[in-house]
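PT: before anyone asks, these are the final sequences, not the draft ones from last week. 755 residues across everything. Please model them as a single complex and drop the result in this thread when it's through.
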Amino acid sequence: MKTSVVGSRVVREDAWGKVFGQTKFPADVNLQGQIYAVVIRSPHPHARVLGINSEQAMSLAGVVAVLTAKDVPNNSHGVLFRDQPVLAEYIRMVGDPVAVVGAETEEIARAAAKLVEVEYQVLPAVFDPEEAMRPDALPLHPTLRPTNVLYHMPIRRGNLQEGWAQADVVIEKEYSTQHVDHAFLQPEAVLAHVDERGHMVVETATQYAHYDRGEIAHALGLRFSQVQVKTLAVGGAFGGREDISLQIMAALMAWNTLRPVKMENTREESFYSHSKRHPMRMHYKTGATKDGKLVALEAKIIGDAGAYSSWSINVLRKSAVHASGPYVIPNVSIDSYAVFTNNPYSGAMRGFGAAQTVLAYESQMDLLAKEIGISPLEIRLRNLFKVGSTTATGQVLTGSVPLDQCLAKIAPYLQRGGDSQ
Amino acid sequence: MKKRGIGLGCSWYGTGYGNGFPDVSSAFVEIHDDGSATVLTGAVDVGQGSNSIFAQIAAEELGLESQDICVYSGDTDATPDSGTTAATRQTYNTGNAVLKAVRQAKSSLLDYAAHEFSCPTSEGIELKEGFIGVKGDPSRRMPLADMVFQARLKGERFISAESSTARSTPVDPETGQGAPYWPYAFGCQMAEVEVNTETGMVRVLKVVAVHDVGKALNPTQVEGQIAGGVTQGIGFALLEELELKEGKINNPALSSYLIPTALDVPSIEALFVEDAECTGPFGAKGLGEPAMLPTVAAIINAIDDAVGVRITSLPATPEKILQGLAEKREGLEK
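LR: through. Structure below.
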């Protein structure tokens, strides 16, 4: 199809403002009469809040309000399940917000936050997902799941025993990935105010304004039609702006004080304010024939969901579906698990569960190639998905499946006296 | 000693929410009296450039230039819900919604114009270079603005609202069998690294990335996505790691949680393959997430190629590489 504008190198309209520093990010907008709010976060990974004494903080000149769980009409939010408190009474991770302080200036708000006394009952915590999976481990979300296993996805295809019987070479290895932060350049910031219509207006950087609207409306007990979420320039997201961070707290403060409320995370606060990439442990056993055909894969993937469910179910599903790599493997047994722990909660991040498995399946491919004595390119060419291939989930790939074309383009860059090209 | 090696990584990625999760995007379109147009959609541009892509799609359909289109997004009081900017779905999914909406508004415009030009079918009408007219007869055309303005006088307006839903179905919970995602995006990358065997430091010298994009709606933005993806992949492979102690983050600062800087980013050659995806807008599929996937594998495989150390836990820190080299030496001595 011939196109003229589509396919051309049109310069983005937002480029100029960003290059010349004119673009307004949420931290750049202010309203007359605004107050500043800061969050008091739990230093404990697992605890109960026994009491909060804000008398001293309130007596500081310039402090407008200290809000706690009791002030939240519906104290929950979450993308799949509303299992995350706006302001917590039961702490599941370091950094869970327990109170929010509003004051005339940011300095006063931060000083007042130090004066709020929170009494915690510290509980035993679990940080290792395999430990958390044990049936005797205390469940962190008993109303959601009887154990800490939030999700298990099995994939079964073909006959694994037959696969191992056909395999001339088997590589078995353990892989692991780390907790990763999105580290977007612009920390979270929000400006919330009740406008002349009596509507709750929240300006922020988010990946999904309509989701934020729904969660703010739910928490405050408002209708969708009373809440406006307006997205200002987003300074990087990568999945880290999918869950709610400061939006509800800012809106709650504005709704309670009828003052515009500004909130802005420091970098350190930002690290505690959004999800992380799931660390994964991946046990892989892959078998191939001596001519380099993959015949069997057994994989077990354990993902650390951390303290809240966020997108963990979808992430670990994506890990399982993509665990084979883009290769035809007729006999497959894959199990992926998402497990609650008292670590920072894991959620969406660019690659969404399919980023971790690449380490495992592509390392296995190179190790198999070496064992068989063919090049890394050759083993991939012998197994890659084409139109009509069947995946580990039994999906027949129709339409656009041009991995062969991609490899043909990269092949010249791999030349170094390889073997079978 | 500094040793060099190259590595290859391939990946695939099911775009969209998947597994039957409702994956719906919506868009409103209005063609104005001066021949420009506005697209309203909830889809947030998080810096990846979706607003420009939607402008290009609308301009293409209406025979206009990109700057004739205003795209306004991510305001719940003004724009319809278009789902999350995630799952590599906005170019594909909201792109489809914008395309459907533009085509709907265009269809009533063409019907109106067909009547005005005494053409029995709108098939005979075309939009080109800001004009609307009869196909094959350049003498019978007028500026789009004039047509839209005249239409208003007769009570005709060209506005539309459309939604587009991606196809996916839930897999069987016992066997995992099913068709959970569509479309899939593929890619491969080559990394060349230099490993310092005394310090364990890895320097990425070059990355060549080839990605399947269906159709590059804007090649500059494709290159941008690839550059960003490779950079993030380098961080994932070599640098980034949250240090946790009993759930507490020990390095919540960019001075101790290291992300790649300009000095860590090598020369990146971004190539793409255009094999049209028939369900995508103008054949496009998404690239946002796929762009970072193969990098980690290409780097880890290149390290092995350079020094014979197989890193199995990320990130590949100098300590792990030195340990791997030491184990290799011990193995040789035995």
